[in-house]
Amino acid sequence: MSRLVVVHPDADVLAQAAAARLLTRVLDVQSVRRPVHVVLTGGTVGIKTLAAAAVSPLVRAVDWTGVHLWWGDERFVPSGHADRNETQAREALVDALVASAGLPEANVHPMPGPDVAASPEESAAAYAEQLAAFAPEGAEVPVPAFDVLLLGMGPDGHVASLFPGHEALQAGGTAVGVHGSPKPPPERVSLTFDAITAAREVWVVAAGAEKAERAAAALAGQPVSEVPAAGATGTEQTLWLLDTAAADAP
Ligand SMILES: O=C1O[C@H](COP(=O)(O)O)[C@@H](O)[C@H](O)[C@H]1O
Q1: Ligand 1 mean position to 31 CA, how many Å?
Q2: Pocket of ligand 1, candidates 77, 156, 158, 188: which has the most ligand atoms within 8 Å of its Cβ, to mutate?
Q3: Tens digit of each residue's pLDDT (9 = 90 or more) over 95-128
Q4: Cβ-count burial of 211 within 10 angstroms (0-12 exposed, 13-18 middle, 19+ buried)?
Q5: How far apart are CA 215 and CA 119, in angstroms?
Q6: How far is the CA of 42 from the centre of ligand 1 (A)?
Q7: Pairing with 66, which of 33, 105, 117, 219 sits 20 to 30 Å away (CA)?
Q8: Ligand 1 site, residue 142, Cβ cutoff 6 A
Q9: Predicted structure pTM score
């Protein structure tokens, strides 16, 4: 597994570059296999990246009929709620792909909210079932072979909804219900580390000085219990896309 750290001048350039890289990655994968599985993230740069992808000319080069979109985590609030990572991703990119680029709605896999599932655990179980349905035969971890798994990183070093010191860090299976998240809302659903580390490529996107200390700690290999981002690795590549502020550890 190779690890690469790429630093961009600011959050806007980072989002533009991440979007170009993401679309190019989908195109490259499409030339050798189908379907392509991409895991989206919430968070500031994550959503900015999707918005940049939406206006890139490269978006028209992708055959969206052969792409599946998943989420790394979700806030356990109802469908359409502004706090949902799904809602923000749909507004930034996904709705336009479904409306006019051929992305089948059936290929969009949001994590169920309380309007669909009775609890974060029920949502996680339903999501794990969907993931397993798309896993390659005989896969060690029953998830699709994610071609790119995007993750934002919080100032505390959390990725997806896996927070420092939280019991969800040790969860088995592929998706977990999260209670008592230190960042609101308190109830969430997240992929587990087993699911994340089964991805071919994991990309961590982070911008801003408030992320610098934790980014440096993760890259230095601090314990995952303290800096969850340290455990976000892909089987083929781990890519950190930072802006100069996030790369500039004190
Ligand atoms: O709550 C969340 O936060 C992280 C990071 O967000 P940011 O705004 O600090 O970039 C995000 O990656 C995660 O998906 C989300 O649910």
Answers
A1: 31
A2: 158
A3: 999 999 999 999 999 999 999 999 999 999 999 9
A4: buried
A5: 32
A6: 5
A7: 117
A8: no
A9: 0.98
> Residue 69 phi/psi, 5° resolution?
-115, 130
Torsion of CA 50, 51, 55, 57, to 10 degrees: -20
CA-based nearest residue to 180, from 163, 192, 197, 193: 163
Nearest atom of ligand 1 to the alpha carbon of 181: 1
What does the block give as tokens for 47?
């959503």
Ligand 1 contact, 110 CB (< 6 A): no
Nearest CA owner, ligand 1 atom 2: 43
186-236 pLDDT per residue, tens: 999 999 999 999 999 999 999 999 999 999 999 999 999 999 999 999 999
Q: How far is 39 from 22, CA to CA, in rounded Å?
A: 11
Q: 157 in ligand 1 pocket by Cβ < 6 Å?
A: no
- The residue ranges of every structural domain in the chain are 2-230
Secondary-structure class of domain 2-230 per CATH: alpha beta
Q: What ipTM goes with this model?
A: 0.97
CB atoms within 10 A of CB 2: 9
In whole angstroms, what separates CA 169 from the centre of its chain?
Answer: 16
Give yes or no for residue 235 CB within 6 A of ligand 1.
no
Backbone angles phi, psi at 173, to 5 degrees: 70, -165
